[in-house]
C-alpha cells in the first residue's frame, strides 16, 4: 500500500510542474454540479453519495455512490449554457472496485461571422464536450485511488480540436473522525487533432481538498487549494491598480465552503472563491463577487440542488442539479 501511494504522489508531483497559460479545453476545470458551485466552485472532498464529486476526483468513489446518478444544468454568463451527467456503479457491493461514466458540455451560443472587411457573412457556433470513464480502487479502509480517462472535443465554426486527457487522484477518508483529504491532478494527456495544426497547452490542474464534518453539529466545512501546479495564478494588478503581492497570490488558491445539515433531507450551502472575489472586485463598491449560496432538497429517491454565484453587479450564475438514487428506486419491494 505504501509503495502504491508513493507512486501516485510521484506522478502528482511530476505532472504538477506544468504551467498555466493559454490552454485549450479550459471548460474541463469549470464547476460541474450545483452542489460544487454552492461550495465555492472547486469543492471535491465530500465523502458521501454524490456521484458528481467523482468527476473532479475519481478516488472519491465509494460504496455510498453505488447506482447513483447526477444531472446538472447551468445558465452561465453571456448566455453560455453548461451541463453535466454522472453515474457511479459498484460491480460488487462489498468489493473494492468502482466504475463511473461522466459527460459534460458547454454551448457558447451563436456568433456573427464576418470577413476581413467586416462584412457579416452569417452565423457560427462554438461548443465543447467531453465523455469520461472512471475507475477507483479502495486500497484500505482509509485510502482510495482512482483514475479518469476523457475524450475531449472542441469546435469553433468549421474548426475543431480533440484530445485524450486523464486524471489521477488519491483520497484519505477517516469515517471515525469525519475527515476527508482529497488530492488530484487533472487533465494531463495529449491532443489528437489541433486548431490550425498547432499544439496547445492542456488545462492541467492540481487540487488539494479537505472536508471536516462534526459529530455533534450538523455542519461540514470544506477547504480547497486549487491550481497548485503554478504559484502565480493572479491578475497582475488589484482593483486599485497596484501590483499584486505575495499574500494575494497565496490567497487566490483558496476556496472555502460550508454545508449545513449534510446528507439530511434539506441542506443549506455557502462558499467563497477568493480568486474570483479578488479579480472581479470593483473599487469603492461592495459587489460580493466570489460569494456562492445554495440549497438541496430531498424528495423520495430524488435530490434537487440549486446554486447561485456572484460574479459582479451585472452577472450572476444559476446552477440546477438533480441526483437520483437508482439503488433505492429499483430496490425490490415485498408485500407481507
Brief summary of the model shown:
This protein has 336 residues and is mainly beta. It contains six helices and 14 strands.
Descriptive keywords:
336 residues, disordered N terminus, mainly beta, 6 helices, single chain
Radius of gyration over C-alpha positions, nearest whole angstrom:
20 Å
How much strand content do the residues show?
over 45%
What is the 3D form?
globular
Biggest beta sheet summary: 14 strands, antiparallel, barrel
Helix-strand sequence: HHHEEEEEEEEEHEEHEEEH
Q: Give the CA-CA distance, first to last residue.
A: 47 Å
pLDDT averaged over residues: 89
* Oligomer class: single chain
**Overall number of strands:** 14
Uncertain runs are 1-20
Q: How much helicity do the residues have?
A: 10-25%
How many helical elements? Answer: 6
Structural class, please? Answer: mainly beta
Question: Would you write up a description of this structure?
Answer:
The protein is mostly beta strands and 336 residues long. It is 12% helix and 48% strand. The chain contains 6 helices and 14 strands. The chain has helices spanning 2-15, 34-38, 53-56, 246-251, 274-279, 326-329; strands at 68-75, 81-89, 97-114, 120-138, 143-156, 159-174, 179-193, 205-213, 219-225, 254-260, 266-273, 291-299, 302-312, 315-325. A 14-stranded antiparallel barrel has the order 1-2-3-4-5-6-7-8-9-10-11-12-13-14. The termini are far apart.
